[in-house]
Amino acid sequence: MTSTMIVLIVGIVVVLMAVYVSWRAGRLDRLHIRLELARESLEAALMRRRAVVLELAGSRLLDPATSLVLAAAAHEARIAGPEEREHAESDLSRALRAAVDQERFREKLSESPGGGDLLEELEAAVAKVVYSRRFYNNAVAVTRTAQRRWLARTLRLAGHTEYPQFFEIDDNPPATMATE
Amino acid sequence: MRVGIVCPYSWDMPGGVKQHIDDLAQALMAQGHDVSVIAPAADDDELPPYVTGAGRAVPVPYNGSVARMSFGFLSAARVRRWVRTGEFDVLHIHEPLIPSLGVLACWAAKGPIVATFHASFQRSRAIAVAEPLLRSALEKLSGRIAVSDAARKSLVEQFGGDTVLIPNGVTVSRYTEAEPLDGWGPDGATIGFLGRMDEERKGLPILLEAFSVLAAERPEVKLLIAGPGDAKDVYERVPKRFHDRVTVLGMVSEADKIRAYHSVDVFCAPNTRGESFGIVLAEAMASGATVLASDIPAFRKVLGEGQAGALFANGDPGSLAREAAALLDAPERRAKLAAEALVAVRKYDWSTVARDVVRVYETVTTSSAGRVEEDL
Fold it and tell me: How many CA atoms, within 13 angstroms, populate the side-chain half-sphere of residue A87?
């Protein structure tokens, strides 16, 4: 085998490796973008749910006790630090279930002026928290797998992005709003 | 919102997935969305204006059955052009694990992509071999929907992650008006059944046993059965003297199925288990039939704990016979249950299902997600 042949083969191998590595890196980069978007939409969904609950609590359509429970839970969720967020959002889900699953809650609310629209908004907000959290946790799982790959770790393909964390909360909707 | 929907199976063949897509597309358009569907179809096929053909479909054996799908350079190029020129806000791919247009669309597009999984599948060599390939296609999906628990379970077991569950809908308006079958009509004494006759969990044997009891007490009671299976199995389970009061239609067309719902006084769903969502039950309710169903959790939920239809103890022919007799004797109660059923079934109407699907679209189309673009 001549030295040109060896150089040629080594060259081809190097090019192929480079192509493979850049393909892997591109894939990982795409996963990071998807994760970022999923996080954004989860944040938006949680914020929306808090806002709708606060509006409902302040609407004077509910009895004062229910209003207080809802307002307190939504407020706690809003001011919670990163450590307490999952707890506070779960508590908000529980408070919502306690309020909405009261007997004749839906009928009463939809009879009052503006109540029907609020109820619909709440239903959409609750469903979107469920949806966006599923999608976010999916994105976390695939990104984690990709980051853990030998190649990604050795070449530090993930750069400085941190290892993504699942968002685990109780987001079960009230029984009368259950979509599943 | 501008939605691009990808159908994996030939548009000219009837089938569950194709029907789902057509119903979804129409419900979305009725809500003011702009929809374009791409599906395998020959160039000379008659297609509705919202459907684009992606080339002739060929029958291919895949994962245990034969389906009409399209793939290859021509289809790939057409899918790519459709994605490029479509300017979709969201792309909705159905059955992305099937080697048809869904996989092609996954390769050709990037941006907000949602997928719906319909079939449940077994772990198979074919899937195992294709797994790395399918995995990279799945990575592009921002949102995943399953239509049943079974579909969700097989996806999660094979590929991990999770899905949201949005069951199939019923186009209620398609069922509300129909003529009874010739020679039939609600006459106060007709009980109906629809479903596979040979499938144990559909519960036909329980109904037949109950019918034998009823028939002995009531000379006018008749039974109308429709669905695939062998009529001989049915007659073997009924005493010979009642044979002339049991009619087995076998497989019926979609139109005749609706007419059959309109031909009975009591529609019986004796399923013993399964049925994450009783589509047959919902169809009967939409047709205005009075429903008598087993009290399995899924049916209790659909029937509002007995508000929109009568229930009997699951697996108990005696309970079925008693409840059926009570219903046949009370035309006013039947009418009331049927009216309640028409209200309750609205929850399963396609408009409600489409609303949930739109919520999924809205979840993945945040402002920074941009539009669907061609992936070069």
Answer: 7
Cβ of B271: how many Cβ atoms within 10 Å?
Answer: 23
| pTM (global) more than 0.95 | no
Range of the domain at A116: 22-177
Alpha carbon B203 to its chain centroid, in Å, reads 19
Q: What is the pLDDT of residue B275?
A: 53
- Please report the ipTM that was assigned to this predicted complex: 0.85
Which tokens belong to A126? Answer: 């609750």
Backbone angles phi, psi at B46, to 5 degrees: -80, 120
Beta bridge mates, B224: B192, B247
Using an 8 Å Cβ cutoff, are A139 and A31 in contact?
A: yes
DSSP code string of chain A: --HHHHHHHHHHHHHHHHHHHHHHHHHHHHHHHHHHHHHHHHHHHHHHHHHHHHHHHTSS-S-HHHHHHHHHHHHHHHH--TTTHHHHHHHHHHHHHHHHTSTTHHHHHHHSTTHHHHHHHHHHHHHHHHHHHHHHHHHHHHHHHHHHSHHHHHTTTTTTPPPP-------PPPGGG---
Note whether B164 contacts A130, CB cutoff 8 Å.
Answer: yes
Q: How far is CA A147 from the centre of its chain?
A: 20
The closest CB to that of A40, out of B144, B164, B368, belongs to B368
Residue A110 falls within a domain, yes or no?
yes
Closest-CA residue of chain A to B143: A135
Domains: count for chain A: 1
Residue of B nearest to A138 (CA): B161
CA distance A114 to A25: 51
B172-348: CATH number? 3.40.50.2000
A2 located within any domain:
no
First-to-last alpha carbon distance for chain B, in angstroms, is 24
CA distances from A3 to A6, A8, A9, A10, A145 (A): 5, 8, 10, 11, 41
A36 in a domain, yes or no? Answer: yes
User: How does pLDDT run across B89-148, given as a tens digit for each residue?
Assistant: 999 999 888 888 988 898 899 899 999 998 777 767 777 787 888 888 888 999 999 988
Q: Rounded distance, CA B208 to CA A107, Å? A: 41
**Contact flag A180-B165 (C-beta cutoff 8 Å):** yes
Q: How far is A71 from chain B (nearest CA, A)?
A: 25
Residue with tokens 């052009």: B81
Give the CATH number of domain B2-169+351-369; options: 3.40.190.10, 1.10.3470.10, 3.40.50.2000, 3.20.20.150: 3.40.50.2000
pLDDT tens-digit series, residues B149-165: 888 888 888 888 888 98
Cβ within 8 Å, pair A142-B161: yes
CA distances from B266 to A115, B29, B138, B330 (A): 38, 35, 45, 11
The DSSP code for B17 is H
DSSP string computed for B162-214: --EE----B-HHHHH--PPPTT----S-EEEEES-TT-GGG-HHHHHHHHHHH
For B92, the enclosing helix (H) or strand (E) is: strand B90-94
Euclidean distance between the first and the last CA atom of chain A, given in angstroms as a whole number: 67
Q: Give the CATH number, domain containing residue A154.
A: 1.20.1440
3-class secondary-structure state, position B330: coil
